[in-house]
């Protein structure tokens, strides 16, 4: 990297700091909403399946179809479609908090399927033993299923956060801000390859940090 590139990056440091802050807002808000809403939806999806504690085939089929449909919905189109809802919730369709609305919706349905898959990996015998001891459905869900699946759930949260980070870069296309928006405005529109390279490196470092932290925590929680 030559002196001119270093000078360009140094002059843009305030914008990099702002972009990092906006990205952290989007990832933080969307991850929190996705984990809570998606977690509840995933539990509902799992427990209404055939042979489970709240088995209900029509409900399970409707939930499964909805989750599959929303997961396959292109994110850029989703951002445009939910703009009226975004304006209603945050008062604007621009900025990191506005982008967090569409990111949260996408994250919730994405995480719901991950939760369902994690709960399916819990040995059936563990659940049956809890039922035989008279455990309530609430106890089975929170003390058995989620406890047994906690290591896998941490990895799923890690995957979720990395996916949100990637989608937050796309939110720059409609003024969502963040690191992706910085790359689009300077790296793409102004043909500043040094800025684009810095954006790629920055996103890569963030992914590595998230993945490493998730792997470490998952290993700590793994009881098997």
UniProtKB/TrEMBL annotation:
Record-annotated ABC transmembrane type-1 domain positions: 20-214
Membrane among keywords: yes
Membrane topology: Multi-pass membrane protein
Subcellular localization(s) per the UniProt record: Cell membrane
Pfam family, one: BPD_transp_1
UniProt GO cellular component terms: plasma membrane
Major place of residence: membrane
Keywords: Cell membrane, Membrane, Transmembrane, Transmembrane helix, Transport
Transmembrane segments: 20-47, 59-82, 88-112, 153-175, 195-217
GO biological process, one term: D-methionine transmembrane transport
Protein family per UniProt: Belongs to the binding-protein-dependent transport system permease family. CysTW subfamily.
Record protein name field: ABC transporter, permease protein
Organism of provenance: Kingella oralis ATCC 51147
């Amino acid at each position: 990297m030559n002196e001119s590139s270093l000078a360009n990056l140094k002059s843009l440091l305030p914008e990099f700091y702002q972009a990092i802050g906006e990205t952290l807002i989007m990832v933080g808000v969307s991850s929190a909403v996705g984990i809570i809403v998606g977690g509840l939806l995933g539990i509902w999806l799992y427990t209404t399946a055939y042979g489970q504690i709240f088995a209900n085939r029509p409900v399970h089929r409707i939930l499964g179809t909805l989750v599959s449909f929303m997961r396959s919905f292109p994110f850029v189109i989703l951002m445009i479609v939910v703009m009226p809802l975004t304006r209603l919730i945050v008062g604007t369709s621009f900025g990191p908090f506005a982008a967090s609305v569409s990111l949260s919706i996408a994250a919730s349905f994405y995480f719901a399927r991950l939760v369902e898959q994690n709960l399916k990996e819990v040995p059936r015998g563990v659940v049956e033993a809890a039922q035989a001891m008279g455990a309530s459905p609430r106890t089975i869900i929170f003390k058995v299923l989620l406890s047994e699946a906690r290591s896998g759930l941490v990895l799923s949260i890690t995957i979720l956060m990395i996916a949100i980070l990637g989608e937050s870069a796309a939110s720059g296309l409609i003024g969502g801000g963040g690191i992706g928006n910085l790359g689009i405005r300077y790296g793409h529109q102004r043909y500043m390859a040094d800025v684009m390279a810095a954006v790629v490196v920055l996103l890569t470092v963030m992914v590595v940090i998230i993945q490493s932290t998730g792997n470490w925590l998952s290993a700590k929680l793994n009881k098997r």
